[in-house]
Each structure stands twice: as C-alpha cells, then as structure tokens.
Amino acid sequence: MATITDPPTPDSDTQRPTLKTIAAATGFAIATVSRALKDAPDIGEETKRIVRETAEQLGYRPNRAGVRLRTGKTNVIALVLSTETDVMNHTSRLIYSIANALRGTAYHLIVTPFFPDQDPMEPIRYIVETESADGIILNQTKEDDPRVRYMHDHGFPFAAHGRTSMGIDHSFFDFDNEAYGRLGARVMAERGRKRLLIVPPPRAHMYARHMTFGFSDECALRGLPFEVSQDITSDSGGEAVEAAIAARFHQPNPPDGILVGSTTSAMATIAGAESSGRVLGRDFDVVAKEAIAVLRRFRQDILIVREDVGRAGEFLARALLAEIEKRDWTDRQGLEVPVKVEQRPPGREVEDKT
Amino acid sequence: MATITDPPTPDSDTQRPTLKTIAAATGFAIATVSRALKDAPDIGEETKRIVRETAEQLGYRPNRAGVRLRTGKTNVIALVLSTETDVMNHTSRLIYSIANALRGTAYHLIVTPFFPDQDPMEPIRYIVETESADGIILNQTKEDDPRVRYMHDHGFPFAAHGRTSMGIDHSFFDFDNEAYGRLGARVMAERGRKRLLIVPPPRAHMYARHMTFGFSDECALRGLPFEVSQDITSDSGGEAVEAAIAARFHQPNPPDGILVGSTTSAMATIAGAESSGRVLGRDFDVVAKEAIAVLRRFRQDILIVREDVGRAGEFLARALLAEIEKRDWTDRQGLEVPVKVEQRPPGREVEDKT
DNA sequence: CGGCAAATCTATAACGTTATAGGTTATTTC
DNA sequence: GAAATAACCTATAACGTTATAGATTTGCCG
Fold this sequence. Notes:
The structure is a homodimer. Chain A is built from 13 helices and 13 strands. With about 350 residues, chain A is an alpha/beta fold. In chain A, the strands form three sheets. Chain A has a five-stranded parallel beta sheet with strand order 7-6-8-9-10, with helices on both faces. In chain A, strands 3-4-5-11 form a four-stranded parallel beta sheet, sandwiched between helices. In chain A, strands 12-13 form a two-stranded antiparallel sheet. In chain A, helix 5 packs across helix 13, helix 8 (about 175-190) packs parallel to helix 9 and helix 10 packs parallel to helix 11. At the A-B interface, helix 4, strand 1, helix 5, strand 2 and helix 6 of A face helix 4, strand 1, helix 5, strand 2 and helix 6 of B. Chain A binds a DNA duplex (30 and 30 nucleotides) through helix 2 and helix 4.
C-alpha cells in the first residue's frame, strides 16, 4: 500500500544523477546537456541557464570514470614520496604504513586532509556521494562522531583510527589510552610520586576521555591525590600548556608527576615546570606517549611509552579491505595495549606485572 | 620509405594494450579474454594459458576507468586526515599543503611512498605507463635523477621538490641550501667561532651538495678553518651522528660551530657534543634548519633557520597544474631563500644584510 | 543416429562521458 | 522569394570493461 506522495524509500533516489537524468528532466539531449555544462558557444543562453539550474538542483557531479574513459584525463595528482630521509611523525607514518599494506593490491591511496575552516563531514560526504573510493579510513574520532554515523548509515565501508561510543560496531584500531593512563599513574606512584597531574588532549577526542579515565581511576584506586585540570589542555603548539604548567608550579602544592599525551605537550610541560627551577627526574616525573624518537634526546629522564602507528596503519588497511570485500573477518577491531615504560637508556625498563 | 621491419616509432607502440589488443593477438573474442583473465570456470585451460601469456607479454594492465565505469569499483582507499591535533612534520606538511592547494580543483591527491626495498623508478613507471595520474610531484631529488629523466623523456608533467643538475629544465621548488650554508657559516663567524664543521646529509641528495658548497665557499671566503667530514653524515635515527660527533669532540681541535641539515641531526649533534661536557651557546654553536617547531624547546641556544614546507607544497601544486594544462607560466621554478637566523627568544634575530 | 548435456566460446549491451558530424529552424542577403 | 547563413540543437560513436544470454562444438547415451 503506497501512501499518496511517493515515500522516498531510503534507496530509491540513491542513484547518482547523470547527464541522462538532467536530459530527462529538462527535455534536452544528453549531448546538449554536456555541452551546456561546459559552456560551449553553440548552446543558447536560456538552455544553459536551465541545464545549470537543474544540474545544481539535482546535485549533479560528473562521473570521473566516464570522463576518464572518454578523455583520458584522470584528474589525479600523484605524490611520490621518498621515505628515505625523514623523521617519520605520527601522520606520515600512518600514511606510509597504509600505503605499504596496500602494495600488491589493486588499491590506490588518496589523501584528503580537512582543515580547521572546513566541516569535517564535507570530505566524507563527497567521497560517499560521488563514490570516489571503495572505503575510508579516518582518524581522531570523537566520542559521538557524525562521520562514523554517516558512513554506517550509508553502509559505506570504513575503518577508524580510534573508537567511538555511539552504539555502532565498526572496524577500528586504537591505542589503549585507558591502559596508558593507568600505566603512567602506576609507574609514577611506584617511583614515589605523591601528587599527580594530567594534561589531557582536547576533550572532544575519544582518546582524551580514555586517557583521563584510566589515569583518574588508577590514582583513585591507589588513594593517590591527583588533578585533572580544566584549564590545562594540550594545544597544538604547546604555548598554552607551557604557560599553564609554569603557573601551576608557582602555586602551592605543585604536582610531582605529570602524564601527557603527545610529544609536543611533553616538551611544553617540561619547559613549563623547569621554569620554576625544578629538575626533571629529581623533583618531578613526566610520562609521555610518542610515536617518533625525539623525547629521549630532549631529556634523558623522561618516561616514555611508545605507540606503534605503523601497526595501526597496517591493521586499518587490512580491516578496511575485509570490510570492502565483505569478508567476515574477526580481526576488525584492534587495540595496542602499552605494557612498558621506557626509562633512562640503556633499556632499564619497567615490565607490567598485571 | 619504410624499412623492412617496422621500425618501432618512439610513439607507435605507445598505446597501452587493452583486452582488444589481446583479443586481436590471440584470435579470441574480447569477452573470452576478459573471462580468461579472471579465471572463469567456462573457459578452457589451454585458452587461459594462451591469454595469460599474451597478456603478460604485452604488459597488459586493466584500465581502471573502464573497470570502474562498468563495475562501480574504484579501487581507491581514501584516507581522511584530521589536521587538528598534530605536530606537522616535513612530510605531512607537504601533503597537507598540496592537498590544500588542490581544494576546489577537480584533482585528487594520491600518495605513493616508496620504500627502501623498492626501486625508486617503480612507482614512477607504473603511474606513467598506466596513466593513473595527470602529473607527479616527487621529492628528495638526486643530482642525476633517473625519475626526472624518465618523466621528461616521456613528456609526462611533473614538478620536483628539489633541483637536479642534468641539463633538464623542469618545474621545481627548492629551499636554497647554498644560501643556507652561507648564512650558517656567516652567523657563526660573526659570533666569533673559529673552527666550523658541517654534518652533511647523504651525499647523493642534491640538497646535500648545495648546502656543503655554500658552507665551504663562505668559510673559504672568510679564511675560516672548516671541516667537511667524510665520516659524519646524517643518518635517519641520528645514532651514527651522535657517536661521530662525540668522538670528534674528544680529539684535539674540536669545532666550535656546527652546521646541520635537519631536526634529527641537530639533536644528535648537540647530544654528541654535550657528552664531552661542552655547553651549547658557550663552547659551541649549532645552526639547524627545521620545518617544525621542536628545536627551540630542545635547547634555547640553538640557532634556527626556518623552512616553510607549506609554501613548497603550494608552489609545487600550482606549478604542476600549469604543466598539466600546458599553460606557459613563468613561475615554474621557485626558491625559498633563507635570510635570517632565529636566536634565543623572544625574537632577537640577525637580519641578512646582503 | 537422434538427442541431450556439457564444455567452450562469442555477440551484445551497458556503465557515463564527450567529439564529431549532421540536422532543424529562423534570419539575413541579393 | 530563393538561397545562403547563423543559431541552436541532436544522433551517433567511441573510450575499456564485464554480465548476460546465446551460439557452437564435442562427447555420450540409448
């Protein structure tokens, strides 16, 4: 039984509009529509207007395969990167490892960063709507992430670097930041620290919550005083962190153990604390997580937990391929659990005895 | 007048083989060839063998646009990256800036890193042969770079991050490492340093030559003793550099001013020198070039020259588009000339008086 | 030896686009 | 008023691939 107005079946209008669609809608021939859209001289102004408007309204986007097949134009720029000389950081390592996992497959990797002035949904919508990829890998998930919801709702294959908590069961790889928080708290407690502080990443991020929870809970279990400051959140440059930490160390009861999330905040935190004359390793400890090898040289006495981003990239690529090929694969959700803290070289390490 | 055997005109056989080509060569129908190549059950074993061999021999590679148009399969994985929280390093910054410059154009960016176990020519050949991109951006050029020669010979649009010296006039953007070498030498000389040393990047790289030449020449002009060590070359982790510098500082006549190329080598160099008890800024200076903001926090007294990789990416994207669209654009070759050295904050700087 | 199935191959159409040649009006020219 | 011209539009083919339905050949059974 159909209702009076056509109830838009979720998938009825899912077909992307083509030149044909526009031709049908306007009554012009396909060729005319094509030429009108490229502003050819032998098409009437009025026709162009109509065609353009209909195209706009239907959300027409040229099919790249069609164009490419006909014209030979790929509309692709390849960036061929040498991995020879480079301190690989988090992002490039992720890219390299995904690309590496894709070697030997038929897949190409296109990279679509989105910028602060942009809606995070924009690239996702573009890719899904124009079907310009078979699947998407995304990073820095939020607790309630609209991108994840969108792709899930559209049945579009994806894998996320990071988890979400919105009741959607999706492929992901994540560093276990809760375990990291616990581990950091534990190690500092065992080193005799009495008052801990956490510098959490921006709160919207999923990993910030995990990290903060693990840290707080471990401290609470041990009856150890701790602070989760509202003012001190890591910023990209670290300027704010440095200032805030410096300020905190000039107040009474300063912390003697700090847990931070990234290389940048570690350096900023230490700089801030040192500004009060205190010495790392003697007067206070810092536990940091890093994917690159920078911090050990920065200060010998920093406590480092290593994150293997390469493993994440590899896992995500494999999981996504499984999604795309609809294999029912069990290993679609992976967690990297940190178990050790690297201390002063050479390699005196604290093993986890859980 | 044709010679007896068809003289393979450079471009006569340039056409990529398609299923049609194989069909013609084997006498089978196109459909048969297609099915044979996918190992369909209703094709005879002998046929499959013949088809596969011919395909192999002709170097057949399926046309992605054809497949995509017919099947809807893109064979593309999209990596959607947040740029929000990240210390952008050299590589990711380059990627971001290129992607950003491509926003609003019809172009997609595919990333193809190549790894140490791989022939650098492999990705280039693949892209050119399969026409899977309209143009290529490549980095870390060598003095005589086969990739550049190949693309130039094939008339394939490209732009290089870095120059070459093989008599080919191509699009590039480069940091002026010669000027950097000179500037570093000059600043240290002006600070009263008496014996300089350079830690050059691996010699095959173009920028290593530029840097070394500028440094050496400037020292020579000033009559300043300097060393271009054969043993000390920057390695990716910096281990070798640290050891070599440490060794050098335990010998007579150690340098009191060192020029290095990267963030990593700067840290390694300083660590090595400090192992002999010397103090940066008092007993020796280090001039380093960096694209990220790490070194200032590492040691306050380091002398920093900043490289704007974002500008490189933007320029390269623009230049490549001009190449592709065959616009005769004058700005196809760009140079970033360093003019200042950042010293201890806040912002006491040495301006170039050239 | 007719008939039937299996094995193997082929013709055709379609995906979405654009270049080309051609068609239809209306308008101008002599 | 016939012919030429301009203005605007359309039909068709092709790019390379694959799914589908159908064609041909071969072997086997009764």
